[in-house]
């Protein structure tokens, strides 16, 4: 690959907390992945050497961004966004190659003179395995040449949207005091896919930080909230009213009834009420209001 799309807004949002050196290290690591179209080596020292990290600060920066933005697997350090872009490029390249092969091997060979057929075969034997016919080669290059007229609108596919929000959730948790929060945590992504908002990650992180716990504790808090929400949804009268379809609408109803929002920071470490108890309190207040109105 000689070109890749760079979404400035996504990158800035995900890396705003990095130091100058850390941001530089991340840029070099990403460029190395795109250049080699492969995972980074497993050995930390080898990765540091590949990107020219020589001083102690530079080496530490490489280690920091590796752990935050990359995932360690059996074959090396992977970056989710980079892997997706490389796979997309390979897919387009494969289609272009197949089209070129169809052009080489298509047509009515019987209509050609014998010497013409031999010449054609000889020509094909000298074409590199990964090359295409000239027209197709131009098409393949077009996939790797930035052209402002051909750029797609700045919208993210579903997968990239999750990656972007994952970075926002990690940033929110770190700002709330959980420095062990890293991008690519499967548990965090699973919660995001279930509809957990960035604000909820921040709230759970504050709870965890308040009792000197880490990300696993915050994830446990969020999972408990989901279980309680599902239990509420199964109640006979819970799914019939739009106000209790989710946390935002439930809290809005609570504010409307003068109860305020749920005090998440007081639960569970400080003996406060759970979200299920808060919802029951809102439901009871609404019931009393309806009775008074009749």
Helix and strand topology:
Elements: H1 8-15, H2 20-36, H3 44-50, H4 56-69, E1 71-73, E2 76-78, H5 80-105, H6 114-125, H7 134-143, H8 158-175, H9 186-193, H10 198-210, H11 215-233, H12 247-256, H13 275-293
Antiparallel strand pairs: 1-2
Helix pairs in contact: 1-8, 2-4, 3-4, 5-7, 8-9, 8-10, 10-11
Number of H/I helices: 13
SS elements, strand count: 2
Radius of gyration: 28 Å
List low-confidence stretches. 108-143, 147-157
Q: Note the overall shape.
A: elongated
Distance between the termini: 71 Å
Number of domains: 2
Largest sheet: 2 strands, antiparallel
Instruction: Assign the structural class, choosing from mainly alpha, mainly beta, alpha/beta, alpha+beta, or little secondary structure.
Output: mainly alpha
H-E string:
HHHHEEHHHHHHHHH
The whole-number mean of residue pLDDT values reads: 75
How are the strands ordered across the major sheet? 1-2
Helix fraction, binned, reads: 55-70%
DSSP strand content: under 5%
Brief sketch in words of this structure:
It contains 13 helices and two strands; from the N terminus they run ααααββααααααααα. It has 294 residues and is mainly alpha-helical.
Features:
elongated; two-stranded antiparallel sheet; 2% strand; single chain; 294 residues; mainly alpha; 13 helices
Describe it for me?
By secondary structure, this protein is mostly helical. The protein has 2 domains: 1-152, no CATH class; 158-293, no CATH class. The protein is 62% helix and 2% strand. The chain has 13 helices and 2 strands; from the N terminus they run ααααββααααααααα. It has a two-stranded antiparallel ribbon with strand order 1-2. Strand 1 (71-73) and strand 2 form a beta hairpin. The longest helix has 26 residues, at 80-105. The termini are far apart. The model is unreliable at 108-143 and 147-157 (pLDDT under 50).
């Amino acid at each position: 690959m000689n070109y890749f799309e760079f979404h400035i807004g996504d990158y800035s949002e995900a890396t705003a907390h990095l130091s100058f050196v850390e941001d530089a290290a991340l840029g070099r690591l990403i460029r190395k992945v795109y250049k080699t179209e492969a995972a980074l080596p497993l050995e930390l020292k080898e990765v540091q050497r590949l990107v020219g990290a020589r001083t102690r600060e530079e080496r530490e920066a490489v280690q920091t961004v590796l752990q935050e933005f990359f995932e360690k697997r059996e074959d090396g350090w992977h970056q989710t966004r980079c892997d997706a872009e490389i796979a997309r490029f390979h897919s387009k390249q494969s289609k272009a190659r197949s089209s070129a092969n169809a052009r080489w091997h298509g047509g009515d060979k019987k209509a050609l003179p014998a010497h013409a057929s031999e010449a054609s075969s000889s020509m094909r034997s000298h074409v590199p395995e990964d090359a295409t016919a000239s027209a197709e080669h131009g098409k393949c290059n077009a996939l790797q040449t930035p052209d402002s007229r051909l750029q797609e609108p700045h919208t993210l596919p579903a997968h990239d949207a999750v990656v972007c929000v994952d970075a926002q959730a990690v940033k929110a948790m770190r700002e709330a005091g959980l420095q062990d929060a890293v991008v690519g945590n499967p548990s965090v992504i699973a919660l995001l896919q279930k509809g957990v908002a960035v604000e909820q990650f921040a709230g759970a992180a504050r709870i965890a930080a308040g009792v000197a716990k880490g990300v696993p504790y915050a994830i446990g808090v969020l999972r408990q909230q989901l279980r309680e929400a599902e239990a509420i949804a199964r109640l006979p009268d819970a799914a019939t009213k739009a106000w209790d379809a989710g946390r935002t609408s439930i809290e809005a109803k609570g504010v409307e009834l003068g109860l305020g929002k749920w005090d998440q920071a007081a639960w569970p470490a400080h003996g406060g009420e759970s979200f299920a108890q808060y919802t029951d309190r809102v439901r009871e207040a609404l019931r009393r209001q309806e009775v008074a109105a009749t």
